[in-house]
Amino acid sequence: MSAARTIIRGEGEGERLWFAGGGVHVWKATAEETDGAFLLVEDRMTQGKTTPLHTHPNLDETLIVLEGEILVYAEGREHRVGTHGVAAAPRGDAHAFMVTSESALILFLQTPGSGEAFYRDASEPATDETDAERPPDLDRLRAAAERHPDIIQILGPPPFEAAKEGAATAGS
């Protein structure tokens, strides 16, 4: 028999965690609550937030854009995904995303919910709204990824042209 239970959460409801990759996550449904079927997390991000090129070897990831716009790198090219758009990366497919609007609100859905261990390892409780402004801790993110290679494998830096240009400018 399944241990999954009914979950009802409104706006702003759910466990709030600051994520080392940047931003505050609001956990809408945990793996425990869904009996491992999925993990559903709300992520509010600011312009320029980007992920490294990565893959999830044993889970599928779907990004649902509720507000704003992100640029998704998948299948070797960049795709713009705006409000009410969806991007799905099946297990094993290399992908990354970058926020191109002033802010963005996404839901990310991972199936099964086994990815939760990585996100908990790379997070800590959010204390107030200022946590959203903390810079990413990429060393912590990489260390957590190394401890969870069955969940995430970082393949390289962000593949976006805008991110590359910004890194070149920051280095000068």
Q: How would you describe what is shown here?
A:
The chain has 172 residues and is of the alpha+beta class. It has one domain (15-170): Jelly Rolls, CATH 2.60.120.10. It has three helices and twelve strands, in the order ββββββββββαβαβα. It is globular.
SSE blueprint:
Blueprint: E1 15-19, E2 24-29, E3 39-46, E4 53-55, E5 60-67, E6 69-74, E7 77-82, E8 86-89, E9 95-99, E10 103-111, H1 116-121, E11 123-125, H2 138-147, E12 153-156, H3 161-170
Antiparallel strand pairs: 1-2, 1-11, 2-3, 3-10, 4-12, 5-8, 5-10, 6-7, 6-9
Number of domains: 1
What Rg do the Cα atoms give?
A: 15 Å
Instruction: Tell me the strand percentage band.
Output: 35-45%
Count of individual beta strands: 12
CATH-assigned fold name: Jelly Rolls
Top-tier CATH class: Mainly Beta
Uncertain parts = 166-172
Helix amount: 10-25%
Concise description?
The protein has 172 residues and is of the alpha+beta class. The protein is 15% helix and 39% strand.
List descriptors.
172 residues, alpha+beta, Jelly Rolls, 7-stranded antiparallel β-sheet, 3-stranded antiparallel β-sheet, 39% strand, disordered C terminus
